[in-house]
Each structure stands twice: as structure tokens, then as C-alpha cells.
Structure to design on (108 residues):
């Protein structure tokens, strides 16, 4: 048997929708400030990093044909936390977009 919504039900739905909208806006606005990983500038993706690693090893006269390859995304969490606490999140984001690279691809 269908149940009709009362005016208090509609008010509850409206309040919930309003709260959801406000939290969505706040979340979108401050997400990159709360999570610095969200602002990573990928200059090289996983597939593009393999030839770079292979060229480096060839320059070192290391042959890799007989080995299995694995690429892993890595970052230095200790350095990230240290920089967040000493520089602040905004300054750390600026620094990691420039000279300091905490995130990158590792190949083995």
C-alpha cells in the first residue's frame, strides 16, 4: 500500500538535500588542500616512464632483456609529512610542483 509523504517529510528531505549540497561544495573547494596527493602534476605516466628507465639503464651498460619488468608508483611519505608540518600545505604544494618530486614511478 503506497504511503503519501507529509509536509514534514518534504521538509526533512529538503534539509538533507541542502546539507548534502553544502558539504559537496565544501568538499570540492578544499579537497586539494586537505589531500596534497590530489594536486600531483604527472609529467610522465606509467607507460611513458618505461622507455626513460630503459634508456637510463642502457646508458649504464645494463642489459634488461632477460628480466621481468615491474613498475610501481612510489612516494616518500615521511618527507611528505615533514614538509606538510614544516612548510604548511600550500607552500609544500608549490615546492612539490617545482624542484622537489615526492611522487614517481619506480621500475625493476
Amino acid at each position: 500500500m503506497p504511503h503519501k509523504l507529509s509536509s514534514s517529510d518534504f521538509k526533512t528531505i529538503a534539509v538533507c538535500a541542502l546539507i548534502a549540497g553544502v558539504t559537496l561544495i565544501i568538499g570540492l573547494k578544499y579537497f586539494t588542500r586537505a589531500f596534497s596527493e590530489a594536486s600531483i602534476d604527472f609529467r610522465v605516466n606509467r607507460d611513458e616512464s618505461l622507455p626513460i628507465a630503459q634508456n637510463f639503464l642502457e646508458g649504464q651498460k645494463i642489459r634488461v632483456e632477460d628480466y621481468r619488468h615491474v613498475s610501481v608508483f612510489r612516494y616518500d611519505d615521511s618527507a611528505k609529512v615533514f614538509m606538510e608540518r614544516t612548510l604548511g600545505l600550500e607552500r609544500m604544494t608549490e615546492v612539490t610542483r617545482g624542484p622537489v618530486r615526492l611522487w614517481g614511478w619506480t621500475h625493476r
